[in-house]
Amino acid sequence: MNKLIKGLIYNDSISLSVLETTDMVNEGIKLHKLTPLTAAALGRTLTVCTFMSSELKNDTDKLSVTVKGDGVGGKITVCGNGHLQMRGSIDNPFADLPLRADGKLDVGGCVGKNGRITVVKSMGLKEPYSGSSALVTGELAEDFTAYYAISQQIPTAIALGVKIGKDGSCIGAGGVILQALPFADDSALEKAERVMNNFKNVSTLIETLGAEGIVKEYFGDVKCNEYHPEYKCLCSREYIEKLLISLGKAETEDIIAKEGQISVKCEFCEKEYVFNKDDVEKLF
């Protein structure tokens, strides 16, 4: 089960979020046939975006995040909502690279160092909120830390990890995220900095302790709220029909004339929707 545990620490001056997203990453692996490398890249992005979705105020609010670098994996796209229903894709799911010198997956090489993170939040306002920042290392934890510092001016510490077993499945994925509240003093910030040194191998801690175990081991008796995010694609035939209608009758009929049918595959769940001539005529 995926989990997100949230609470306040250090005299309620630092917000704590611990995420366990192993099942979510395994769903992504199953749907997209990910390599260990692309599973790590997409899994880390799904994890931090689950945290970002938990910041949405309303269930109907929506989040869309793209990580577009110059690495072998190509663009990563993750979407979520206030219900913590998450979904994601990576352009080149079969991409692979040799392990780094320290024996770890080269996520930085998969994502790339040259590019940007773009975050769009739709919160029922006339215009959606949009923020962006440059990639720093491509390892994603540092990149999203920079995003929060630059785009939202919130001091944030992020540890992310995805551990892949010998059979290609995920055996531990998640993260620890600390954010300073406006009244956090130097003592609290120093404690937060020290404790984050324990999470350099956070995926192994998720595998062995789980989210609750991490909270108990490193933060003690903290009053927390627990949430259960999930990998859930929200595509439907009705949604695809609206997209075709937006293309216009002339263009859809032109595609039917050339191809014999219109085939649309969802980038998040790989489900294919097929429309023939009769289907298109009914739409208009």
SSE blueprint and pairings:
Layout: E1 3-9, E2 14-20, H1 22-32, H2 36-54, E3 62-68, E4 76-81, E5 85-90, H3 107-111, E6 116-122, E7 129-134, H4 141-152, E8 156-164, E9 170-180, H5 186-196, H6 202-219, E10 224-227, E11 230-231, H7 237-247, H8 249-259, E12 262-265, E13 272-275, H9 277-283
Parallel strand pairs: 5-11
Antiparallel strand pairs: 1-2, 1-10, 2-9, 3-4, 3-6, 4-5, 6-7, 8-9, 12-13
Summarize the structure.
The chain has helices at residues 22-32, 36-54, 107-111, 141-152, 186-196, 202-219, 237-247, 249-259, 277-283; strands at residues 3-9, 14-20, 62-68, 76-81, 85-90, 116-122, 129-134, 156-164, 170-180, 224-227, 230-231, 262-265, 272-275. It is an alpha+beta fold and 284 residues long.
Strand content range:
25-35%
Tell me, what's the shape? Answer: globular
Structural class call reads alpha+beta
Largest sheet: 6 strands, mixed
Distance between termini? Answer: 43 Å
Total strand count, please? 13
Count of alpha and pi helical runs:
9
Percent range for helical residues?
25-40%
Strand order of the largest sheet: 7-6-3-4-5-11
Radius of gyration: 20 Å
Q: What low-confidence regions span 5 or more consecutive residues with pLDDT below 50?
A: none
User: Overall pLDDT, averaged?
Assistant: 96
Order of H and E elements = EEHHEEEHEEHEEHHEEHHEEH
